[in-house]
């Protein structure tokens, strides 16, 4: 109870509220610009949270990421281009509605569904955390070690179409993390006689290089603004009418939200596919399935509710076990370390107040984002007419100066460039960058807990009941692509 | 497409070479003891084996992998160009970032980014008004955003002269 009150007090502090509002505005703008995803937003903001209060810093990042999909719905409906990848399903019905003069209605429905979806996601999160807290108390070093390995396996195997590439990405990230001082003996590894390498590669340049630089490169290749087809007009009256549409179809909103939460709960399942599942379910149960794809308001409500609710689901394994529920959550786990927190079972054990703070942030951010976009959306949408080559250099400045500013260290900017080129190549060859980052983040923890577990329990620690069960899940996860292929062949 | 795969093949070979070099350094040059070296050795060997598996798959022509679904499929649905390995425009963007780093080192973290952004905007044929606004925007980000608001002691003078 004291944790809950402490979390609420932390959420209500003026600093936390100010950063959350700033995060919402930044997230909405990132959502509006196609090509700038929630992943990029979190990665770019990582240097800014350095030195912040952990609750405030994480809440700032989460608020930014949570509302990217809400901002993206506006571009999807008014411009016909999904602002974020998970808004793709919204285009199918949102844009036809805008073309026949119902842009405001579609927008209102999307924003209301997003807000309700976000709230439902955070309710599930708040309900599950107290249930999971006593469970994680049983976790000792062997279990923590196995859980960290499970996290990388999940995102590497289930998050990729190609298991080998996924596992290779994770292994590469872990190998890179072994550079610098060994956490147990203090011996520097692979430092090449360069002082700046003694501490290994810092997290922020690695995360920014892998995620922000490839996106900025893509944006800089765009000559003109992304909104080439013009922005549909809206009115406040129509927006409110659309919001009423969503509330009148509350069962659809709840059902789509639950699909989102479920998909979010399963690490690596692919958050981008969840809105399509909600869309398909809505079409299958609609009284007018033939209207889908031609401008059905239900086709807007379902994916948008699902979009925002999946973040609540994705936060459950992220906060409770340190297993990221989505790609963005992998970067959020990186932020834990930047802020001096340890991800994994220890987090929920020691920082339940921060978990509560984050849960409330998720709900409130979704509501505020909807309000902000109802009032300012049509004006903010004009950011999509700004050419990519205007936005890209400004992001470059933020990236380079931001990376330097973390420790006032020029070598970090050099590392940024090295990992930027690596990130560009990995993206080009469709490697699993989130798995690489997660491997990089969790490797020191895995090595330390493996050492502690082997000293405390001997190498047979793997045969303790819980580690053995986790090992079975890892094997099942690795076998899953083959099972899926076999089932697909059998179906044909 | 074939040359694209060749480049990926070279990239994978590069991964093996780099990891192999570090493992050789660790084993013979640094001569780490087992407790220090075991973890990176296992990871390095695992990465090499997986890279070899990937290369064998490519050689057998069984490479039908779709893009990783953790990657945002924005390129498929938006006019934002996907970075292309053979696109000069993509490498040019990386070049601009490198230029910003070098120029910032030479003339400081205030004038450097502003200068590069100004040249960037002019090279891409934007008007003078856009150029001036962009330079002012850059100065605002670097000075007002970082130095004044976040109180980061950015090197405003040439970095090498410190």
Give keywords.
heterodimer; A: 492 residues; mainly alpha; two-stranded antiparallel ribbon; 75% helix; B: 162 residues; 70% helix; flat
Average predicted confidence as pLDDT of chain B: 84
Report the count of strand segments of chain B.
Answer: 0
Biggest interface, chains and residues, is: A-B, 87 and 77 residues
Shape of chain B: flat
3D architecture notes:
The complex is a heterodimer of chains A (about 500) and B (about 160). Chain A has about 500 residues and is mostly helical. Chain A has one domain. In chain A, about 75% of the residues lie in helices and about 0% in strands. Chain A is built from 21 helices and 2 strands. A two-stranded antiparallel sheet of chain A has the order 1-2. In chain A, helix 2 (about 15-30) runs parallel beside helix 5. The longest helix of chain A has about 35 residues, at about 105-135. The N and C termini of chain A lie far apart (about 55 Å). The model of chain A has no long low-confidence stretch (mean pLDDT about 85). With about 160 residues, chain B is mainly alpha-helical. Chain B folds into 2 domains: about 1-60; about 90-160, no CATH class. Helices cover about 70% and strands about 0% of the residues of chain B. Chain B contains 6 helices and no strands. Chain B has helices at about 1-30, 35-60, 75, 90-105, 110-125, 130-150. Chain B is flat. Chain B starts with a helix and ends in a 13-residue tail after the last helix. Residues about 65-80 of chain B have low confidence and may be disordered. Chains A and B meet through helix 9, helix 10, helix 18, helix 19 and helix 20 of A and helix 1, helix 2, helix 3, helix 4 and helix 5 of B.
Task: Outline the secondary-structure elements.
The complex is a heterodimer of chains A (492) and B (162).
Chain A lengths: L1 H11 L1 H19 L5 H12 L4 H13 L1 H11 L9 H12 L3 H34 L4 H18 L4 H15 L2 E2 L6 E2 L13 H18 L15 H13 L1 H16 L8 H12 L11 H25 L5 H12 L6 H6 L1 H29 L7 H20 L2 H19 L4 H25 L7 H27 L1
Antiparallel strand pairs in A: 1-2
Chain B lengths: L1 H28 L4 H26 L14 H4 L10 H20 L3 H13 L4 H22 L13
């Amino acid at each position: 109870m004291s944790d809950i009150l402490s979390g609420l007090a932390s959420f209500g502090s003026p600093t936390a509220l100010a950063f959350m509002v700033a995060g919402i505005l930044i997230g909405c703008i990132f959502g509006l610009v196609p090509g700038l995803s929630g992943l990029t937003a979190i990665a770019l903001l990582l240097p800014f949270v350095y030195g912040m209060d952990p609750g405030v810093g994480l809440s700032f990042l989460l608020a930014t990421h949570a509302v990217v999909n809400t901002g993206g719905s506006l571009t999807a409906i008014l411009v016909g281009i999904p602002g974020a990848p998970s808004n793709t399903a919204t285009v199918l019905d949102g844009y036809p509605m805008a073309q026949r003069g119902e842009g405001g209605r579609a927008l209102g429905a999307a924003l209301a569904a997003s807000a309700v979806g976000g709230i439902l996601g955070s309710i599930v999160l708040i309900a599950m955390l107290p249930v999971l807290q006593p469970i994680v108390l049983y976790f000792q070093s062997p279990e923590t070690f196995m859980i960290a390995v499970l996290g990388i396996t999940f995102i590497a195997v289930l998050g990729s179409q190609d298991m080998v590439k996924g596992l290779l990405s994770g292994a590469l990230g872990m190998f890179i993390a072994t550079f610098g001082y060994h956490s147990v003996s203090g011996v520097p590894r692979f430092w090449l006689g360069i002082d700046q390498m003694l501490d290994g590669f810092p997290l922020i340049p690695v995360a920014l290089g892998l995620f922000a630089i490839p996106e900025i490169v893509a944006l800089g290749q765009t000559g003109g603004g992304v909104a080439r087809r013009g922005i549909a007009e809206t009115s406040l009256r129509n927006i409110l009418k659309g919001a009423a549409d969503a509330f009148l179809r509350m069962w659809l909103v709840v059902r789509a939200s639950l699909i989102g939460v479920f998909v979010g709960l399963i690490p690596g399942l692919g958050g981008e596919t969840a809105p399509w599942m909600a869309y398909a379910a809505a079409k299958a149960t609609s009284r007018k399935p033939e209207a889908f794809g031609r401008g059905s308001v239900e086709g807007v409500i379902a994916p948008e509710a699902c979009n925002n609710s999946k973040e609540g689901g994705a936060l459950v394994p992220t906060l409770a076990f340190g297993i990221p529920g989505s790609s963005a959550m992998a970067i959020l786990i990186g932020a834990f370390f930047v802020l001096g927190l340890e991800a994994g079972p220890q987090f929920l054990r020691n920082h339940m107040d921060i978990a509560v703070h984050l849960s409330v942030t998720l709900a409130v951010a979704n509501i505020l984002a909807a309000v902000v976009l109802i009032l300012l959306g049509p004006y903010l949408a004009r950011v999509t007419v700004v050419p990519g080559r205007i936005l890209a250099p400004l992001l470059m400045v933020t990236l380079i100066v931001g990376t330097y500013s973390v420790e006032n260290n020029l070598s970090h900017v050099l590392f940024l460039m090295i990992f930027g080129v690596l990130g560009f190549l990995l993206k080009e060859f469709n490697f699993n960058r989130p798995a690489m980052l997660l491997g990089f983040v969790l490797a020191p923890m895995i090595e330390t807990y493996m050492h502690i577990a082997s000293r405390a329990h001997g190498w047979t620690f793997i045969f303790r009941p819980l580690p053995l069960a986790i090992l079975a899940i890892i094997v099942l996860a690795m076998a899953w692509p083959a099972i899926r292929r076999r089932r697909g062949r059998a179906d044909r | 497409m074939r040359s694209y795969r060749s480049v990926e093949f070279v990239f994978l070979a590069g991964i093996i070479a780099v990891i192999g070099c570090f493992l050789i350094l660790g084993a013979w040059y640094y001569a780490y003891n087992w407790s220090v070296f075991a973890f990176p050795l296992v990871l390095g060997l695992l990465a090499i084996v997986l890279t070899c598996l990937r290369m064998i798959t490519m050689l057998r022509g069984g490479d039908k992998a779709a893009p990783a679904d953790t990657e945002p499929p924005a390129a498929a649905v938006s006019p934002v160009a996907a970075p292309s390995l053979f696109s000069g425009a993509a490498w040019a963007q990386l070049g601009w970032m490198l230029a910003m780093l070098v120029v910032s080192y030479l003339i400081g973290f205030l004038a450097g980014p502003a200068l590069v952004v100004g040249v960037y905007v002019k090279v891409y044929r934007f008007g003078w008004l856009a150029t001036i606004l962009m330079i002012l925007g850059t100065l605002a980000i670097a000075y007002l955003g970082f130095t004044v608001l976040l109180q980061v002691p950015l090197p405003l003078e040439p970095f090498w002269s410190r």
